[in-house]
Amino acid sequence: MEQLTNLVISDRELATISAVLLKLMNDTNATSAMLIDKSGQVVAVQGTGIRRNATTLGALLAGVFSSSREVAKLLDEKDFRNIFQQGVQENIYTSMVEEQWLLVIIFDRLTHIGLVKVLSKKASDELTRVLERVRNDTSRTKSSVLNVQFRSSVEDTIDLLFRD
């Protein structure tokens, strides 16, 4: 399956994704919502408090999700499609959208998990439609955008590794 890094999401599609996340956040009274790919690359973020750490959080949550799928295999389960992490102040509900993306909702202890599950399913269905359009749109030049982003990312990483 094609990885997200090979896909180009237009401003219009990104706005649609952000609107779905914002609606989910508002309807569930969540503090944040994000869409990431299975490798942890952040597609979109809505909410307060996680924007600064979104890249790190995305990578860690993707790792947790991947680990849970391996646990499922050990239990002779096909896979786990949802993860609920409960903390003292914050909870995280992660669900798979298709086989490539993860929808993450961060909410406090006052929000009912049942509401989050039901509304995240509805949001997942909407996101699936948008992401299908992205995947099926071959009219855009994907390699040129990827190269600019990749080059910038590599330069930033090298700068961090070799700074004085």
UniProtKB/TrEMBL annotation:
Domain Roadblock/LAMTOR2: 17-107
Signal peptide segment: none
Gene Ontology biological process: positive regulation of TOR signaling
SUPFAM superfamilies: Roadblock/LC7 domain
Listed Pfam families: Robl_LC7
Gene3D superfamilies per the UniProt record, alphabetical: Dynein light chain 2a, cytoplasmic
PANTHER family: LATE ENDOSOMAL/LYSOSOMAL MP1 INTERACTING PROTEIN
Protein name as catalogued: Roadblock/LC7 domain-containing protein
Lineage: Bacteria, Bacillati, Chloroflexota, Ktedonobacteria, Ktedonobacterales
